[in-house]
Amino acid sequence: MSISLVLILAQLLTYVSVSRFQGQEDMPEYRALSERLKGRVRKVYSITTILADGGKETEDVSYDPQGYKVLLVRRPYKSQNEIQKEVYTYDGNHRLIRKEDTLGPDRYVSYQAKYDVRGRLAEDVKFEPEYDDLRRSVYLYNAEGMREKLCEYNFSEKNPFMCLTYIYDSKGRVEKIDHIGEENKVFLKEDYKYDASNRVSVRTDFSCSERGCHFAGDEIFSYDGDGQIVYWRKHSSDGSLVWEKTRKQLLGKAGWLETTIDSRPNSFVKIFGSFNSLGDLVLSTEVDKDGTLTRKEKYSYSYDNHNNWVLQKQFICSVNNASEKKEVCKESVSTSRRIVYYE
Hints:
By secondary structure, the chain is mainly beta. Helix content is about 5%, strand content about 55%. It has one helix spanning about 5-20; strands spanning about 40-50, 55-65, 70-75, 85-90, 95-105, 105-115, 120-130, 135-140, 145-155, 160-170, 175-180, 185-195, 200-210, 210-225, 230-235, 240-250, 255-260, 270-275, 280-290, 295-305, 310-315, 330-340. It has a 22-stranded antiparallel β-barrel. The radius of gyration is 23 Å and the shape is globular.
């Protein structure tokens, strides 16, 4: 498992456990802050060069003065003549109301969102003409302003093909989610339990049919003092382990150690990552169940006056090579970016 995948999984876990049930999470926020950029960024020009074969990918991103992404133009790796574009449109309250994706010469996808008088997401529509696919999602809220129901429609049909209903506990936390399909029948139930800090500690799924509902798997979470997930365990419908992850913050928050076990025979890996004082990854290593180093990556950076990196180099280092008396690290990817700021 690559270090980037581990970071994505950690971010996804935090997203699911913390914000899954908030009204706005269905339409993503596109802010410079989400990319950990410092300062009032107006535009980012970046070029990633993969030295193995000389290929490159370019990406230009523009932001408005409030830090919201408004335009992304990408020329994909191995296809520099093909332009992919994402255009974001917001209302006066900086809520995303339209996103248009041009993914190539023959593929276009658009998203539109509408909000109610209280600023809550009321409806969104996705249209993909290549597949003649247009889907609409409608959101309903209870008297307390919490989401009560989400229904999804094929646009040409009056009846939804699926609805989710939300049940809350006395503290306003989602306790149950029922998935309702055709003929208004529940086919899946989700149950949630929380820790003392109101974070999801257990999620349990039940598969339902006319014969009733039965256990379909669960996920168990634990967190550190900063609210980051440090333990994540998943079981299948028969109770067997799917995978188990533990994550430990190292002293001074200069790095972390993650251990992963899954249902594959002898599957075990420890991943260590360390960061510099600006929070950028500088070293990642993977170790198998026997303690053998299986992968090692190093990163170096050059920074601008805002402490945003403008050059990142990734190096893959040799491991377990007895013929090499010293470590040999070869540059694999070089990413440069030019950042323009609002004054």
